[in-house]
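Below is how a single chain appears once it has passed through the pipeline. First comes the sequence as given, then the structure the pipeline wrote out for it. We keep one example in the README because the format questions we get most often are answered faster by looking than by reading.
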Amino acid sequence: MSPLRLGLLLLASFALILSAGCGGGGSNAGSADNPGSDGTGKNSDDPNNDPTIISIDGSSTVFPISEAVADAIREARGVSNVQVASPSGTTGGFDKFVLGNTDINDASRAIKEEEVKKCAEAGIEALELTVAIDGISVVVNKQNTWCDSLTYDDLKKLWEPDSKIKTWKDLNSEWPDETIKLYGPDDKSGTFEYFTKKVVGTKKKCRSDYEPAVEDNVLVAGVAGDKYALGYFGYGYYVKNRKDLKGLSIAKGEGKPVAPSVKSIESYEYPISRPVFIYVNKNRLSDEGMADFLRFYLKEGQKFVPRVGCVQLPKDELAKSVKALEDALAAAK
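Resulting structure:
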């Protein structure tokens, strides 16, 4: 090899080493484990973390609302920078949000203290906005002719850890001696957490011999395909699949059974009704397009809530969310 060629190769090698030592490793680079210093977690070296994108993940219950609002603002105003991911569940979504890797988390439960703490460690403050009301619907197969209602006590016996209930006959001696195939959200779901705390009485604990899923449509298909099945999930998924499912009326204590409906959920008369939320990274409030999107979500977006099966907020509750948003936007200026 000629001295000139050898010299050129050595020079190129030195340049590569110098480049590797100086590039891509700065302290401001964001990642899943090391969010950017501004708390957004947006890594400019990663094309999937474009800082102009509004990224949303989280609850499967709230997902249809966020998806509908994102589609609507795209159609109405040509806004195409809102990305709604396939739902990871409320807890799964918060796992990303607390690191700054998403901008908005759909949530079917309130944020926890430990999640607030993790947000603070990453330089994030979460803005809570109530966006709708949901009723966790307990459903059976359409061919189920024997069960129209259950009590809280029935549900507790059925879903509690180490439950002895195996067949429908175990719940009621007049019902079929057939195994109850159970379907429900997995432990990353806010619906799972709310249901176990409210009904079973042990948060995030229930019997283990059931079919869990993060995607509610999987649960729908499971119950729809088995005459002896029972499951629970958000009201919207029940409404969209009424031809295959029967919603059970639920009685709490000595009260009469109440069926899930828009009226009973809005009034909280249906015993397993609950508000649902979006949580917004306040560091993103001053970014172009975020304020417009959030205002659209709360105002124009309310008309999409019933279309996807949730229940619109009463005017006074909506006004509280709008005020919370405007106050936060004013503070971000």
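The longest strand covers residues 126-135.

See the next section for the split statistics.
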